[in-house]
Amino acid sequence: MILLLPAAWPHAAPAPRSGEAEVREAKGGLPCFTISQREEQRGGAPDFQAVTVFDPSSRPRAKMWTMAMPPDRTFPVLFTMCIPYAGRVQSLPQTKSVMLENGKVYEVQIDVRPGGGPNQPRRYDARFCLAKQRDGSVQVRHIAAGEQEGRNVYGCVPPK
User: pLDDT by residue (tens digit) across 106-156?
Assistant: First the structure.
């Protein structure tokens, strides 16, 4: 009877994987968000649901900004497009954005609608920062998955 128990349990489906988002610099030096080219090639362009930026240094994570689509509308998230931080699309529900700080690591989460193929994640994640350069300018820096923090916090803090 003990041998039959595991065979009688239904097999649980594996948790959906989290896809890789990409962070770029938009006009005005602010970050913008999309899915990686590899993700689009792997699973196609997913239908947008929401984008949220978090400050992971606070517990619980602090929400810096979010924008969501109404239930009856969507658009495909293509690698070639980019959703700007604090983008003001009047018809979309969104929170007021909080000013991002230089040298601080943030997380972005792009949620998508169900209905894609089996290789399509339900969300895409990435980390990024605004890195102050030696000349005083600021650059948006995408932090690659698996990148080690190091002394300069992923290159987000200029070397001394």
Answer: 999 999 998 777 778 999 999 999 998 888 889 999 998 888 877 778 888
82 Cα distance to chain centroid:
12
String of DSSP letters for 62-99: EEEEEEE--TT---B--TT--EETT---TTS-BPPPPP
Please state, in angstroms and as integers, the Cα–Cα distance from residue 126 to each residue in 34, 68, 136, 141, 147, following that order: 10, 18, 25, 11, 11
DSSP 9: S
Question: How do strand 62-68 and strand 48-55 relate by DSSP bridges?
Answer: antiparallel
pLDDT in tens, 29-80: 899 999 999 999 988 899 999 999 999 998 999 999 999 988 888 889 999 9
Residue 106 CB contacts under 8 Å (≥ 6 apart), including other chains: 53, 54, 55, 56, 64, 100, 127, 128, 129
CA 123 – CA 43 distance, rounded (Å): 12
Predicted model pTM:
0.84
Using CA atoms, how far apart are residues 75 and 50, in angstroms rounded to an integer? 11
